[in-house]
Amino acid sequence: MNQSIKPGDNPDLTEERLSGTFDTNSMAAVIYGSDKLAQRRREISEAVSRIPELQDSKPCPFMTREEKILEGSRKSAILNRLLPGLIDLDSFEETVFIHQEVIGIEGHPLALHESLFIPPIATQGTDEQQKKWLGRAQRREIIGCYAQTELGHGSNLRALETTATFDISSQEFILNSPTITSLKWWPGALGKSANWSIVIANLIVHDKNHGPHPFMVQLRDEKSHEPLPGITVGDIGPKMAFNGADNGFLGFENYRIPRENMLMRHSKVTPDGGYIRPPHAKIGYSGMVRVRSRMAAEQGLFLAHALTIAVRYSAIRRQGYLEDRSREVKVLDYQTQQHRLFPSIARAYAFIFCGFETIRLYDQLLIDVQNGNTSGMADLHALTSGLKSVVTHQTGEGIEQARMACGGHGYSMASYISEIYGVAIGGCTYEGENMVMLLQLARYLVKSIEMIQNGKSKNLGPMVAYLAANESEIDLNLGPNEYLKVFQYAARSQAWRATEKFQKLRNSGMSKEQAWNQASVELTRASRLHTRLYIMSTFINHVGSVVDQKIKKVLIDLLNVHITYEVMDIGIYVQGLLSSDQMDLIRNQLYVSLETIRPNAVSLVDSFQISDMQLRSVLGRRDGNVYENLFKWAKSCPLNDKDVLESVTKYLKPMMDKSKL
Ligand SMILES: CC/C=C\C/C=C\C/C=C\C/C=C\CCCCC(=O)SCCNC(=O)CCNC(=O)[C@H](O)C(C)(C)COP(=O)(O)OP(=O)(O)OC[C@H]1O[C@@H](n2cnc3c(N)ncnc32)[C@H](O)[C@@H]1OP(=O)(O)O
Ligand SMILES: Cc1cc2nc3c(=O)[nH]c(=O)nc-3n(C[C@H](O)[C@H](O)[C@H](O)COP(=O)(O)OP(=O)(O)OC[C@H]3O[C@@H](n4cnc5c(N)ncnc54)[C@H](O)[C@@H]3O)c2cc1C
């Protein structure tokens, strides 16, 4: 049963909900990993809806940037007071969720505090450092951010310019931004809100540069909030979206911090200027791997937001006719609309399933690393690099299709889809620009193929074992596993093609770097296919593990949409394997699976359990009463406070009057 049905709802939406074949709460339990976690989300939404001071003071699209930052801060402060009674304070998921519910997706002063400030202290700080700062940060006595990117350098961390030079005589590090390009640029919450930051700076001891390391740095006075002497800090200005966040710039001029402020769990500088290396050269990058490992689920949820809006709206929007000329048809009944939306629903489910899997893998890696075992770091770095790139790109595409699927109203901020799009596609850039990260995964794929070429296939990890197989025929009695083999064929042949291109260029005498650059488009294609294969196989495994038979049946239908769509989408890579008859068969299976999923479309998006407050969309309202609320929304626009604006009295009216003479 669909748990969203309520009296007074738009009858078209109720009809959709009645046609659903499964219980949406049970599906939510599968999406979020357990009945308890799904129920906690419902309980938190419900509790928040009953607290007047946590409601939006007005719709976000009607707020100026200053109002957004003020509203985010107001709510953050109230939340800090109320959180102990509302959520499990030890749960990162609940903390993120309640902020999303109450403040929304446009950013707020604590967005980075939870995800990029506290985790490095907790994982890279010594026990004493944790004792000193962790409690203060968790109680929010201080607000932090993560300052790594610079005006001139973001992707290439080796070229960062900020320095932290050890001064033995005073036992301090001296921070400097030697050039304009070395100014820290972009960190969220740095501009106006944070008073502390993790700063990534080149560690210099005895004139030797040991590369980027993390330091705890106080930026502002804890009483006055004024920048401390030696610090230049401010906001970088409005962005495409995410304007509730104050992304900032930061410069240092001979700014001194105690030796104890370098995070020293892994690398250390001793009082006499000795440098102790970390157990793995890239351990300082693990804060980024943590965030990347969470991005598939986060982005899957952004896509879920947009689809909830577009699918619900498509069920109440009537336009044109099919057979019955007496009543316009729901636009959701058009095959083109289904083709536009349903594969994205499948992707959103796939991203969330695989996102929770990578979070689990990261948590396991963290335990291993704390126990001195860093052997899994390369695998997870490669996996999360590819995953963040593919998922953010496809999420952006899916959200934009969802906007267009809403016609003209999709273009209005009342749909809120443009904000979701703007925030989500930031993910193509932050935490590693997508091409750069695809090329990181490509290094790993090339190395794997070189192992095969050197007769060491048995050393390949499970995620790349398929690179050594030799599939040349597919039995098209197609079940998910045959589709997986088709995808493996595509990913494998592209990985070999790209590697061989690189090797050929090398053998022709080209430098490694030039050969890599000339092969890089092919290499990124290999990385995408490898990642899409991983997403598909995780989806198949996940569906296989579902116990509730009604839920399993719908998920198999959704999986069929996914695998047929994905294989059609990569047609060019499987031309050597599949005949045109086989491609036609798959195409037809896709069309059949769109029809099969149609009665469950609304229930599938309802199962994401995104409340109206969180959705902030007039088009996507749970009750489907869109038109009357669109009219209300337009009337509440500040431009309509007065009938005659100054723009008219001051300029247009005089112009028209003058023209009359
Ligand atoms: C509904 C939604 C719910 C919630 C959503 C809420 C909010 C979301 C909204 C808004 C977002 C808010 C905040 C966004 C926060 C964004 C924060 C940031 O962006 S912080 C800055 C991030 N910066 C980057 O990611 C920089 C990218 N660059 C790099 O990581 C590195 O420079 C590089 C590309 C990896 C290269 O590094 P380097 O030059 O040092 O190394 P090499 O390329 O030479 O490689 C050498 C060797 O090392 C391996 N390696 C590299 N990194 C790692 C690693 N992390 N772990 C393990 N190994 C690593 C690499 O593979 C090479 O291996 P080899 O081939 O030699 O074996
Ligand atoms: C919303 C948002 C929030 C952010 N928050 C933070 C934060 O809190 N803290 C922080 O430190 N940073 C933050 N950043 C910065 C972000 O991490 C960087 O912008 C990102 O890592 C990309 O780096 P860049 O800007 O230097 O891009 P560039 O590297 O300049 O990319 C420009 C182009 O060059 C290409 N390119 C670069 N290198 C290569 C290569 N080796 N091979 C092929 N192509 C290449 C890229 O693919 C891209 O097309 C944020 C950014 C955004 C948009």
UniProtKB/TrEMBL annotation:
Q: Which InterPro entries match?
A: ACOX_C_alpha1 (IPR055060), Acyl-CoA_ox_N (IPR029320), Acyl-CoA_Oxase/DH_mid-dom_sf (IPR046373), Acyl-CoA_oxidase (IPR012258), Acyl-CoA_oxidase_C (IPR002655), AcylCo_DH-like_C (IPR036250), AcylCoA_DH/ox_N_sf (IPR037069), AcylCoA_DH/oxidase_NM_dom_sf (IPR009100)
The record's subcellular location field reads:
Peroxisome
What is the required cofactor set for this protein? FAD
- Please report the stretch or stretches of sequence annotated as the Acyl-CoA oxidase C-alpha1 domain: 285-446
Task: Offer one example of a GO biological process linked to this entry.
Answer: fatty acid beta-oxidation using acyl-CoA oxidase
Quote the record's binding site residues for FAD.
149, 188
Record flagged with keyword Nucleotide-binding? yes
Q: Where is this protein chiefly located?
A: other
List the residue ranges forming a coiled coil, or say none. Answer: none
Q: Which UniProt keywords apply?
A: ATP-binding, FAD, Fatty acid metabolism, Flavoprotein, Lipid metabolism, Nucleotide-binding, Oxidoreductase, Peroxisome
Q: Which family does it belong to?
A: Belongs to the acyl-CoA oxidase family.
Name of this protein: Acyl-coenzyme A oxidase
Lineage at the top is: Eukaryota, Metazoa, Ecdysozoa, Nematoda, Chromadorea
